[in-house]
Inverse folding.
């Protein structure tokens, strides 16, 4: 397991790092870095964990991740199959407003943009109606250099700051602080749960992964994630169920329930409604009505 803190290589002649990934799957470990990250997922699907919150992600979505915000884009399990021909394609922009750009952001003319950056430390998901406009701006930045690139970057920030309905990834503006050792431990636990969610997982199983007694594990997990082990596992499972339901590639709701680790359709329906506020069928109907509109 990689350490939680991640260092982005910064060229001496660049203050904005542009990276395009074409890979079999996303980097599979929970991590964080000093840079703010703007990610356009051109191709790929799975689960985004940001702080202690989970979001299903799909192709052609854009996410903003705050500085030092723990996160992982976990590709859907089929990407890891030995004969999988799937791949992810993503553009990622990194910038540190407190690094080389600090003097720039302290200019009085950029006060509103600096406020925008500071107000979104918990990250956000871009509403789908703005993805085309923002991704075009991102491509202009990727295709330019020098002063032109910096000007296009400012235009991108101005555009993002003009949107009123940005969807936060986390309810809290406080970024959880982990030591390196705690980060490794939490990352291992997250990774284990997200790989094994479709199978029976007990508290004892998870505690063994952290090399802790069940009692110590419960205290540690709640302190660092604000979740109980069961509530986190249920959110992982329901998040995956939502993705399967809205993909439409399933025989019936019961099939989704069992393939997401639930051994009872009654329990699945109860947990699903407790987390989403809707029954599975209501969720599906609501999702496709919004897509059509």
């Amino acid at each position: 397991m990689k350490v939680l803190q991640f260092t982005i290589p910064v060229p001496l002649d660049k203050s904005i790092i542009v990276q395009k990934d074409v890979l079999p799957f996303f980097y599979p470990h929970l991590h964080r870095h000093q840079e703010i990250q703007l990610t356009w997922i051109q191709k790929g699907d799975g689960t985004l964990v940001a702080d202690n919150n989970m979001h299903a992600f799909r192709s052609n979505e854009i996410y903003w991740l705050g500085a030092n915000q723990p996160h992982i884009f976990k590709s859907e399990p089929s990407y890891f199959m030995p004969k999988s021909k799937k791949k992810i394609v993503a553009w990622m922009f990194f910038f540190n407003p407190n690094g080389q750009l600090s003097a720039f952001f302290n200019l009085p003319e950029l006060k509103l943009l600096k406020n925008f950056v500071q107000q979104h430390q918990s990250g956000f998901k871009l509403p789908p109606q703005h993805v085309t406009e923002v991704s075009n701006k991102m491509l202009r930045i990727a295709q330019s250099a020098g002063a032109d690139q910096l000007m296009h970057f400012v235009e991108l920030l101005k555009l993002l700051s003009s949107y009123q309905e940005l969807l936060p990834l986390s309810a809290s503006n406080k970024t959880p602080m982990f030591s390196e050792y705690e980060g490794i431990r939490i990352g291992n636990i997250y990774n284990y749960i997200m790989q094994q969610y479709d199978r029976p997982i007990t508290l004892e199983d998870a505690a063994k992964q952290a090399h802790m007694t069940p009692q110590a594990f419960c205290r540690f997990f709640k302190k660092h994630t604000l979740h109980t082990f069961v509530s986190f596992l249920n959110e992982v499972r329901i998040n995956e169920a939502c993705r399967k339901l809205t993909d439409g590639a399933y025989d019936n709701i019961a099939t989704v329930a069992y393939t997401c680790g639930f051994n009872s359709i009654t329990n699945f329906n109860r947990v699903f409604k407790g987390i989403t506020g809707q029954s599975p069928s209501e969720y599906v109907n609501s999702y496709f009505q919004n897509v059509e509109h």
